[in-house]
Amino acid sequence: MRRAYIDSIGMYVPPKIVTNKDLEAMMDTSDEWIRERSGIHERHHVDGECTTDLALKAAEEALEKAGMTAEDIDHIIFSTMASDYFAPGGGPMMTRRLGIPGTPAVDIRMACSGFLYGLSIAKAFIESGAYDNILLITSEVQSVALDFSTAGRDTAVLFGDGAAAVVLKPTDEQRGIQSIVTHSDGRYAEDLMLRSPSTLDNPFQSHEILDKGHGKVTMNGRSVFKHAITKFPQVIKEALEAAGVEKSEVKLVVPHQANLRITEAVANRLDLELHKVVYSNIHKYGNTTSASIPIAMYEALAEGRINRGDIVVVASFGAGFTWGASVIQW
Ligand code: ACO
Question: Tell me, what's the pLDDT at 272?
């Protein structure tokens, strides 16, 4: 059977580090509060770079590690919540940045689940024989849409900027993506959103809209937390069942790095030992939306925590709400 597997991963975060102490100077918060509630110590923010700048660096590393050039890519899948332009999307922009005009590209706006959705599209493209080499890029610049005043402190402290890219290829071997399950539920759209520009308004952008704070990310943290700790374990179980894999066979769970308390609650509910089986690097990067899973996989690989043949589970939950999980044999 023709399967899709991840051949290489690249990542990039902008050099500017913003510590919790730095945030203390901007709003009424404390290093202690942020560490205790989220596990985050610092995050990276852009300082003049745009979404495709980060994406390009991550993509170049992934291509180099795969021993490929951009010309070898048959299709781009691009996930972001904030492209360089509101329209067109970042996918076509990446054909320009990579110097491969004419290459098909599709955009995904599935927030923290963008990597899972991108993986599901790549899997379908590769298994059907439609395409061979796919470049899945996740690139997120959230810092430009956060409210760094005290009014926005519950949300602004959580997010960081970053990008990752993976090259997916076909294989006939018993490896690669064994299952993917994805879900969405728009009933909770307003619990985590970036309201504007919006077609609810005409014109869809104005000084008045910006004055209302509609150009910034807003969140109902308690609702997100409550749903995340239920949906993560559920969807992981679904993906394991779909792959016919037992929990005991799993070498590593790489969840979306939403916040450490969510990750801890998920590990508890799945009866997994957090430090042995569930990967976390949120202390360094905060929540990098759809880039967080491939960034965490990149680091888990570099640390030798994922090796050829290992069963790895990736899982996400985020705005929409959207959630998903995949079982991958490395
Ligand atoms: N610094 C200091 N105090 C703060 C901050 C801050 N950054 N943010 C909120 N507070 C205050 C609140 O104003 C409140 O003060 P009050 O008691 O005087 O009213 C107090 O801290 C407690 O607020 P709560 O909302 O009860 O805090 P809670 O324990 O729920 O933690 C948090 C808030 C961290 C946002 C939590 O709800 C959470 O983790 N939610 C999940 C959100 C998340 O992970 N989002 C990521 C994006 S979605 C995803 O990736 C899955």
Answer: 84
CA distance 178 to 326: 7
Q: What is the pLDDT of residues 274-289, one digit of tens each?
A: 777 999 999 999 999 9
Please provide the average confidence, as pLDDT, over all residues in the chain: 97
Q: Give me the residue spans of the domains in the chain.
A: 3-173, 177-329
Q: Which of 317, 290, 117 is nearest to 233 (CA)?
A: 317
Domain 177-329 bears CATH identifier 3.40.47.10: yes
Question: What phi and psi values does residue 49 have, to the nearest 5 degrees?
Answer: -80, 150
User: In this predicted model, what pLDDT tens digit does every residue of 104-114 receive, in sequence order?
Assistant: 999 999 999 99
Give which of 241, 213, 261 is closest to 325, Cα–Cα. 241
This prediction has a pTM of 0.96
Atom 42 in ligand 1: which residue has the minimum CA distance?
221
CA angle 287, 289, 291 (to 5 degrees): 100
- Residue pLDDT, tens place only, 243-258: 999 999 999 999 999 9
Q: In the CATH scheme, what architecture does the domain 3-173 have?
A: 3-Layer(aba) Sandwich (3.40)
Q: Read off the pLDDT of each residue in 223-236 and give the average, rounded to a whole number.
A: 96
The set of catalytic residues is: 112, 256, 287
Residues lining ligand 1, CB < 6 A?
29, 33-34, 37-38, 112, 153-154, 157-158, 192, 219, 221-222, 224-225, 228, 256, 258-259, 261-262, 287, 317-318
